[in-house]
Amino acid sequence: xxxxxxxxxxxxxxxxxxxxxxxxxxxxxxxxxxxxxxxxxxxxxxxxxxxxxxxxxxxxxxxxxxxxxxxxxxxxxxxxxxxxxxxxxxxxxxxxxxxxxxxxxxxxxxxxxxxxxxxxxxxxxxxxxxxxxxxxxxxxxxxxxxxxxxxxxxxxxxxxxxxxxxxxxxxxxxxxxxxxxxxxxxxxxxxxxxxxxxxxxxxxxxxxxxxxxxxxxxxxxxxxxxxxxxxxxxxxxxxxxxxxxxxxxxxxxxxxxxxxxxxxxxxxxxxxxxxxxxxxxxxxxxxxxxxxxxxxxxxxxxxxxxxxxxxxxxxxxxxxxxxxxxxxxxxxxxxxxxxxxxxxxxxxxxxxxxxxxxxxxxxxxxxxxxxxxxxxxxxxxxxxxxxxxxxxxxxxxxxxxxxxxxxxxxxxxxxxxxxxxxxxxxxxxxxxxxxxxxxxxxxxxxxxxxxxxxxxxxxxxxxxxxxxxxxxxxxxxxxxxxxxxxxxxxxxxxxxxxxxxxxxxxxxxxxxxxxxxxxxxxxxxxxxxxxxxxxxxxxxxxxxxxxxxxxxxxxxxxxxxxxx
Length: 564
Ligand code: ZN
Description:
The protein has helices at residues 13-29, 33-63, 68-97, 101-108, 110-120, 128-146, 159-166, 171-187, 189-209, 215-222, 230-258, 284-298, 300-311, 349-366, 380-393, 398-402, 406-414, 416-436, 442-456, 466-469, 478-482, 488-506, 508-521, 527-534, 544-557, and strands spanning 150-152, 155-157, 315-318, 328-332, 337-344.
């Protein structure tokens, strides 16, 4: 059976509640570990059934947001998910309070109990309606951006298909394309400001109802960060400011010179080479063939994994109108199937999205035997190590995808820890500001964004683009709307993935075996423990950022980019 044949039926929420609550009574009252095991097992079954149907509906909706059936189903899960979240929170509360708590911890691990304790704090029945409203409001944002129709030179394009024009070798095309995209954000400015303002207010209300001062710590707790907090993240951002921002500025100088420009404006920034950015040498079907070949050579584990993905049609890669933006990987537990979603548009990003999402999918595929669902996926910063390291571990095959553009790809992709991380921490610091100032107006938020942007990305010059100059760039960053405080995860993970890159150049076998170990460990440990399994430096440790980026800088210095 392949994905198109996976059965979908809306779950019976009342039945779920009844069954779940019956098991909760057993968990609360039993003093017998065998009975406890069975009740926990049944709860995991109920959760898996729900998750499977909710995920099938969500994938099918994201593939075609104009499909009225799955749009309705998606609305249903926007309301149903918080209900199940509430049940799971009760399950955790009962585990923690159980007279068998010590036995549970001995059998299932301390990490499960830590997750349970943390998650209990993030839910109360009083916030149910606010959670439903929050889901609906983030869906509004996704639909607005996913359905965007941008008029450009007499044609209309969705957001993703505008990308090639934004990267064009011709400066006038880039300028015009930026104007067209800005038009969309400006004409929807009031709506998007309204959506975000509503989200911030809902989230602040949820936080205070739960007894938090504001949404910041709640955001961290919801991401089940059991081993670090805002203080550690603030120190990481300081390391970035000190060690990465200057290197990024010198890379921007190199880029300006390479492009033969006097000054780099925002519309030039995405173009890395005068001869054009690297492009994959074929279309979607061709790239999937290349990927099959690559994963069959990379290792027996990846061969089995990617054959499963293609046989079961678990990839939807092409960009189409009405499709949700971006890329993601998700998982349907009852089919033991990951799913990869992307919006290919003919740029190098197609290849990195494919290897990136395949990294996520390979991890869940490797850890899907954990009975405890909490251990199948780790926290998101650890997840991004799987995905980003896969981008680096597949380097030896990139010449097949890029052919004559291979050197350009290597140079620009290897630069990413330096070029991306300053942007990543900008997104993070902005969100701290937003949730620490819940009463701020939309205008004040934009001003705050621009101030933070100037600190980490001092070379961004928005020329005469008033909207971006007053601080509107973040409108396009969906994570800010959908999952607060998620974005820093990419920067933490990139600091780790860069170490896998360096390690793979020194000792490929060790790099690969550490990677497989990490993937198999799934979410059975918190982030900083997983780093030990992977044998990589903890990015929060003083000096870690500097050591990692120095190596990356050395690699870049060894390439004569003026010839690319
Ligand atoms: Zn990812």
